[in-house]
Write a structure and sequence with these properties.
Layout (H helix, E strand, L loop, with lengths): L3 H16 L1 H8 L4 H19 L10 H27 L3 H12 L15 H16 L1 H8 L5 H9 L10 H25 L4 H12 L17 H14 L3 H8 L3 H6 L1 H20 L4 H12 L9 H5 L3 H13 L12 H19 L9 E2 L2 E2 L2 H27 L4 H12 L15 H16 L2 H15 L1
Antiparallel strand pairs: 1-2
Helix pairs in contact: 1-3, 1-4, 1-7, 2-3, 2-6, 3-4, 4-5, 4-8, 4-22, 5-6, 5-21, 6-10, 7-9, 9-10, 9-11, 10-11, 11-15, 14-15, 14-17, 15-17, 17-20, 18-19, 19-20, 19-21
């Protein structure tokens, strides 16, 4: 099997990640490290077996890369769920939901009180988000898999196109260095703001990765600090900005950052949506900016308890739902449709109207940020947006069928598929199993950008049909 060997590498990478919290367990005296050893070791062993399968990397095609990526996220959530099941005594479905939420950077939690969880489990949840923010497959390409065509196809399978360096492995290593630098910076800023080191590490992991799964029941609001809130906004914006833009900034090309169309769109949306929340929903200035950035960057951190959010008017819920559907930059850790597709669609409509008004045969220059835009790119943006909204509507109808309020249900589904994590209380350990399964599916396809999941289903269908 062509997919066995690269999937084995990824399983080993997941196994290593699962073993890391043992250090925290030993440091804090948590009696839970046996779960990490058992299931981390199991993933390593399974990966070792699959790695020994004969495989020709040169025959690996994009469809194989997509199937590998789709299976990798399912496997990561499975291994993590076993750890949570035995460490915190929850059932399999809730454990799988929690781990899919963590790995995919969604940030939902089914725990009603996270502050009683052992430190090793809290760190494990944060670590899954930090690794998942970049992508499981990307982590493994950068560390384990040799450069070449296979690496390029695996990279593209996680819906990434941007190249910072000529080679894919060079690009990934540069992304890792940028990511690690911002991680150290975030931890330092939080500590200087008065946060203890353990909290600073966890909050940096979850907010930089735009995951948002907190170690506090009231999320960032638990710290009751404007400075910590501002640092969190900065980290969320960093996480939601393309790594290519960060690379330009590191190279001293600051003006290029502000010329980037996605960065420009982000500033406009944050400004406009924040003003709407301040004027029409009576949000404070800081809270308005925080929640818009949290929703748009697909982080899902809170400054207010869920009980307060539930009591909001429909207006802020709808504004934040739109932000969660749009998302921030392609080539970042964010989810949702992403700004480049939204910009492409708006530009496409503008160019079409312009074509109709001009004399027949007129040539219309089509560029975004100085780059030519082909018909295929406009079609891709349109078809992906259609698929995204289709699956969102299906799950929305499922939740409403269980009696949930329409606006709240749409908010929750948009949050799940956008890998956001903002919740209005629908997510709970007692929610209907079918609704929970649909939301797991939304988080999975949202992280994969849908197509790898569809390719996997098509492959399984073809095998069964034979």
């Amino acid at each position: 099997m062509l997919i066995a060997k690269p999937l084995g590498f990824i399983m080993q990478g997941i196994g290593v990640v699962v073993l890391i919290p043992i250090l925290v367990a030993l440091l804090y005296g948590d009696p839970l490290f046996i779960e990490f050893i058992l299931f981390g070791g199991f993933s390593l062993a399974m990966g070792f077996i699959l790695k020994r399968t004969p495989s020709d990397y040169n025959q690996l095609k994009l469809k194989h890369g997509m199937i590998i990526a789709a299976l990798a996220w399912l496997w990561a959530a499975l291994i993590g769920s076993f750890c949570l099941m035995y460490a915190t005594n929850i059932d399999f479905l809730n454990a799988y939901f929690e781990c899919m939420s963590a790995w995919s950077g969604s940030g939902f939690t089914i725990y009603t009180n996270v502050e009683i969880l052992p430190n090793s489990i809290l760190f494990f949840r944060s670590l899954m988000q930090w690794v998942g923010g970049l992508g499981i497959v990307i982590m493994v390409i950068g560390i384990l898999i040799r450069p070449g065509t296979a690496a390029a196809r695996l990279y593209k399978s996680e819906a990434r196109e941007e190249k910072i360096k000529p080679s894919i492995t060079g690009t990934i290593k540069t992304i890792w260095w940028i990511y690690v630098f911002y991680t150290i910076l975030g931890i330092t800023l939080y500590v200087l703001a008065g946060m203890n080191l353990f909290d600073a590490i966890n909050n940096t992991f979850t907010n930089l990765s735009t995951g948002g799964m907190s170690i506090k029941n009231d999320s960032i609001g638990a710290y009751n600090s404007d400075l910590i809130t501002i640092i969190t906004i900065i980290l969320m914006i960093i996480g939601g900005t393309s790594f290519l833009v960060h690379y330009k900034a590191f190279k001293g090309r600051i003006l290029d950052v502000f010329r980037d169309v996605q960065f420009q769109a982000m500033i406009i949306i944050v400004a406009v949506f924040s003003i709407l929340l301040i004027v029409y929903a009576n949000f404070t200035n800081l809270n308005a900016v925080f929640y818009v950035v949290s929703a748009l960057s697909c982080t899902g951190s809170n400054t207010q308890p869920i009980s307060v959010m539930i009591s909001w008017m429909d207006y802020p819920k709808v504004v934040l739902t739109i932000a969660m559907i749009v998302g921030m930059a392609a080539g970042s850790t964010t989810g949702a449709i992403k700004l480049i597709r939204i910009v492409t669609l708006f530009k496409g409509v503008y160019w079409e109207i312009k074509r109709m008004l001009l004399p027949e045969g007129s040539i219309i220059p089509r560029k975004i940020s100085g780059h030519p835009v082909e018909d295929m790119e406009i079609r891709e943006a349109g078809s992906y947006t259609f698929l995204y909204l289709f699956f969102l509507c299906v799950s929305w109808l499922v939740l409403m069928q269980y009696g949930y309020d329409g606006i709240n249900a749409l908010f929750e589904v948009a949050s799940a598929q956008g890998n956001v994590g903002l919740s209005l209380g629908i997510i709970s350990p007692d929610m209907p199993d079918v609704a929970e399964i649909f939301l797991i599916f939304n988080m999975w396809i949202g992280r994969l950008e849908i197509l790898p999941a569809l390719v996997l289903f098509k492959g399984l269908f073809d095998i069964l049909r034979r």
